[in-house]
Amino acid sequence: MTKVVPSQVVALIDRVYPSAPPDMKVYSGDSAILAAIINLVDDIPVELLTISGDYTGLVVGLESMGAAIDRWNHRGGDDPPRNHDGKSPVYLVRAALGKCPDERPSPGTTDLAFVSDTALRESIRLDISSASEALHRSDFKASTVLAGSAIEALLLWSLQDAGHTAAVAGMKTGAKGPPEGWALAQLIEAAEMLGLIKPETAQQCGQARDFRNLIHPGKSQRLSVTCDRGTALAALAGAELVSRDLK
């Protein structure tokens, strides 16, 4: 099934009904476009329908359009769909979908509840979710890089949350300044030395570190390697292990 995102349906409505007022009327000649709107909304992943109170308007709008199509097809006539609170069903659907995101972590993504910053937590979860989706569609480079990015963000957050603003004594990777400017290898080393992650997690992240570097064309050519299913799985495993340890 093709994935549809809310903005695609909003764009379709705006293209067919530009500058339409809230109480706009649609008639039997619009049945094809109304059916298309209903079918497209059905293909939107449920996790993207994050509209709380407006969800009622979305449902009412879709049902009103569906009832009108059924009436036109079986009884004839040209009566428009019933409005709700003075607003047309098309307007209700467009208003609801306009508040929905096009990206959101899948329900099975690690929750990362330990990250107190909501925006950061959802951003990291989205990277992990997107990495998993990329793996399933065999986009191994995207999966590897996104999972590596999630590891980097989690390790940086863990060091900042623990109050560390400088290199840990004895680090061998030559870290200088605050952790915000460190490379992934330095973040891994510091997190392991401080006991924030386990040695086996650091080892797995070390593999993800090497694979994530493959995004740079020069390095990829020099090493004669590319991202594949193995690199993606290694990076995703690293992200999951870091999440486990930081809990």
Layout of helices and strands:
Layout: H1 6-16, H2 31-42, H3 55-75, H4 89-97, H5 118-136, H6 140-161, H7 184-193, H8 199-212, H9 217-223, H10 229-246
Helix pairs in contact: 1-2, 1-4, 2-3, 3-4, 5-6, 5-10, 6-7, 6-8, 6-10, 7-8, 8-10
Description:
The protein is mostly helical. It is elongated. It is about 60% helix and about 0% strand. The protein has 10 helices and no strands. The chain has 2 domains: about 90 residues, no CATH class; about 130 residues, Nucleotidyltransferases  domain 2 (Four Helix Bundle (Hemerythrin (Met), subunit A)), CATH 1.20.120.
What's a quick, concise take on this entry?
By secondary structure, this protein is an all-alpha fold.
Key structural traits:
247 residues, single chain, Four Helix Bundle (Hemerythrin (Met), subunit A), 2 domains, mainly alpha, elongated
CATH fold annotation of the largest domain: Four Helix Bundle (Hemerythrin (Met), subunit A)
What is the number of independent domains? 2
N-to-C CA distance = 35 Å
Structural class: mainly alpha
Level-1 CATH class name of the largest domain:
Mainly Alpha
Q: What's the helical proportion of residues? A: 55-70%
What average pLDDT do the residues reach?
89
The helix-strand sequence is HHHHHHHHHH
Strand content: under 5%
The biggest sheet, with number of strands, parallel, antiparallel or mixed sense and barrel status, is: none
CATH superfamily of the largest domain: Nucleotidyltransferases  domain 2
Count of DSSP strands: 0
CATH architecture of the largest domain: Up-down Bundle
Report the principal-axis shape: elongated
Low-confidence stretches: none
Number of helix segments? 10
Radius of gyration: 25 Å
